[in-house]
Inverse folding.
């Protein structure tokens, strides 16, 4: 599944509901909490889903932008979730505008990001702002920022490769990230 591969790549790169999803709430992600089972997530989100391996996919919107809402499980328990935006833009610079809108929504909920970076991997288009979207699509430019609270790391990313642009928001259980990194340290 090519989309799954793109999402997994975007998720890995970013780790170095519906409209109103960024509204205040008591849950870790939408109507769910880390550690829920697949059945509990389906009960919270509804029956209109598909499954691919350890992931549950829903189709939704955020700020009128279509996206996949992906729930990811480890050892049968929810540990991360992703909004992977699927709306196509004829002008690649519009993806940067979408990124900035999502960033503003996340800033409103979580405050200023802990990490905020625009990274030029190849500066060929750096002097031409009209080509920044093209630079993202070619993998020359990426935008990333992150927030966190006691339980969740939130990463917003705009990356690209081979003229395909990925705009994602990744929510991850901090406890899982911490335990994964500490177990990796023990193996060194």
């Amino acid at each position: 599944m090519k989309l799954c591969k793109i999402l997994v790549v975007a998720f890995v790169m970013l780790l170095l509901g519906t409209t109103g999803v960024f509204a205040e709430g008591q849950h870790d992600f939408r109507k769910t909490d880390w550690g829920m089972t697949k059945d509990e997530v389906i009960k919270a989100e509804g029956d209109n889903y598909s499954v691919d391996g350890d992931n549950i996919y829903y189709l939704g919107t955020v700020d009128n932008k279509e996206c996949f809402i992906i729930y990811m499980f480890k050892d049968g328990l929810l540990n991360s979730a992703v909004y992977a935006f699927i709306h196509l833009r004829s002008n690649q610079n519009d993806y940067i505008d979408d990124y900035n809108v999502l960033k503003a929504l996340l800033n409103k909920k979580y405050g200023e990001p802990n990490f905020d970076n625009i990274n030029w991997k190849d500066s060929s288009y750096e002097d031409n702002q009209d080509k920044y979207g093209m630079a993202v699509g070619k993998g020359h430019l990426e935008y990333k920022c992150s927030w966190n609270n006691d339980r969740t790391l939130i990463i917003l990313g705009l990356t690209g490769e081979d003229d395909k642009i990925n705009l994602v928001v990744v929510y991850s259980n901090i406890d899982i990230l911490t335990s994964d990194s500490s177990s990796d340290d023990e193996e060194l």
